Amino acid sequence: ELAARGFPVPPAFVVSALACRTFFEGLGLGRELHGLEGTSRGELARHCAALQRRIVEAEIPRPLAGAILQAHVRLNERRGAAAALAVRSSATAEDLAGASFAGQHGTYYYVDEAHLLEMIQRCWASLWSPEAVAYRATHGIPHASVFMAVVVQEMVRSEVSGVAFTANPVSGDRGEIVIESSWGMGAAIVDGRVTPDRYVVVRKGLELRERRIAEKRFMVPTHVPERRSQRVLAVPHEMQRRATLRPDQVRTVAEWALRCEQQFGGPQDVEWALADGRFYVLQSRPITALGRTEIGRDVKGKWVLFKALAENFTDPLTPLTVDLVTVSPPPGLRFIGGRLYMDLESARRLVPLRISDADLATLLYLSGEAPSSPHRLSLRRLPVALLALLGSYLVLGVLFARTRGMPDDFMQGYRALCRKVEDDPALDPVDALQRLFLLPKPLDPVGHMAILVNVASMRFMPWMGVLKQLLRRWVPDLRPDAVALLCSGSEGVLSAEMGRAIWTLAGEAKRDGLVREILIRSEPEEALARLREEPAARGFVDRLDGFLALHGHRAIKEFELQSARWEEQPAPVLGMIRNYLLFEADPAAHEEKAARARLEFEAKIRRALEGRPLERILRLRWRLVRLAARRAKYYLKQRENSRFYHIMGFGVVRKKVVSIEAELRQQGRLKCKDDVFFLRWHEVAALRSGRLGWLDVEERIRERRMEHVRLAKITPPKTIGIELRERPADESAADRLEGQSASPGRYEGIARVILDPSVDLALKPGEVLVAPYTDPAWTPLFLTAGAAVVEVGSYLSHAGTVAREFGMPCVVDVADCTRRIQTGGRVDVDGGRGVVRILGGASGT
Q1: Calpha distance 514→522 (Å, rounded)
Q2: What pairing do the DSSP bridges indicate for beta strands 148-154 and 719-720?
Q3: Could you report the per-residue pLDDT of 797-806, keeping only the tens digit for each?
Q4: Which of 129-143, 230-244, 627-641 has the lowest mean pLDDT?
């Protein structure tokens, strides 16, 4: 229909549904298909496998085969050369008003004349895949009523391809057009191999409202790969975070999508491609499910998002990561939609207060908001809370005593333990997790107990509470961020030391003309290869290797086992070094200035506290304040440093998983890199033992990849089953964003929105870093930033800890800041009050 009305559709011909029906009747399938209605699931699966074999192995009647091959000749004559073909399914029951069947029938690429008839038969056979049959049964579609047309189309060798929805498929908003795009062919998006770039366009005026550039790690190439099993290729690092569409191309896609909607009279899901500067429409079908996506819709109980994990990265965890970290499920915690949630009722039993669900959820989410009403002590819950506190102390008391005065390097022995576990072939990923995290040996040094050290470090909270009360009582007129300022600047924070080490590497590169030239003029992946080939760069390469030996276990989204570590892919580190080479800055001067400000503030408090003659002699009040501040700083540092070693253990577990994946790919039981992370652990074990093969897990992997991409597009709800108080909207304050204070101070500067620091590193000295979240891999950006604004976070988050270390203002938990603040605009960051004002001045989104 689109081709007939002049849309840019690649040339094609159709093997009609009637041809399929005639072929099925020739095989005598009619009565057999009618007999499938009401068949049990297990029996249906056996019938399906037999049907598919019969359809693929039979010979197409000569008249039909001749007509198909003649149509192919005409297609080539029109083009003037032999074209690679895409052979695509189109079932008669597909794309109904309430059922889509999207992705459940066969599509084949790179097809030539020799394989054309076979692939058409495979499309017919895909009517009887277990997934398609189950879907028909669920929607009450009789099996015998369905036949398959096949579209044989010239394959567009697309540089960029994607989908366009003329209504937002998540929210159901018909005023928005959502465009998703990626490199190469669209199969990578359809199969869930990549998270695509996402553009949201306002229908009226086609104004670009939102642009999210994803990390596109894989692509389906437009050329036939050297090995057909190699269906996806890695995207070069420098292209992974590059935008796939220019603004004018976004508008072109939106315009054609709207024309498709106008043609068919309803919201459309349009597949499209760009090749050699030309736009093509590949398919248009109705959107059958608008606005039905919701995390936790069918979950019972009351749950609060576990912010301690969410503030480090906002994407859902992959199925294998979830499976492994819940081998011994922690009480009161549960993964929902790939994100970790806390059980409200479990927490309530430990909180001896009369408190509403909304206020308790707000408290657990660490939002910093004031309660709706004063909390009163619950005498009924007090005994349970006291018993829990006493039990915790009895269990952890020895650990508390052993960790209250340790040197900064007391966990260094954990590195040797990690090497020992890594080198032991008898330990699989589950065993490694248990040895490194869950089951320390009784005689292990305290530094080997990574999780327990992190628990012990939570003592910073009561010490900060004591400090706050002392200052409120004795020096009531102090600035509101006084506690944050006194607890800042602790030396020995390992993530901060990592940032300084990268800065030092940049300084060495700057002094070496050859190294500097290579780093600036080459993309990071290419630069590393060139540096290793240059004898004159040997000194710099050795120092880089020394850095990776200490910090190579770190990564972006490092709690996700799928994330490649820096020691595997050092390109992000070289990108950070390159950024430092491009811009002049002196982070040491920045830190010295912050340290002076902190000392001056401490002196001011001391003078206020020593106003009385007796106090000047005894200094009791100052000593108490200083003790509380030092203890809080010590435990804050211990908490951040124990995270450094947690991730080291996660790196060991990842190596075990990657080794298993390599073994399974070599055996042909897995086909593509990273597929293993979309399996459950028992499925991986079954693949290794031979109980499962590639055909058993192929569809599971595809469906889970698609689900992971879908979940990644959704902002997870803060609560499930709990209604939170909504802040009243202030229409007059469109330029004012509110969050939490994480680091004191006030700063005005140019904003720079960065979504992924591994490839997006162009932060100039003094710019305001605006980020969706941060983890330690973001630390180098803090050395040159003037201030930070973060979408998800808390006072305890990595962003707050490092910002206080470097003495820069930081506001966290600023909802929607990466969309509302534009790169190039001026912002005023008030770290003390937790307020960000947009002053304007940005050009473009």
Answers
A1: 12
A2: unpaired
A3: 778 878 887 7
A4: 129-143
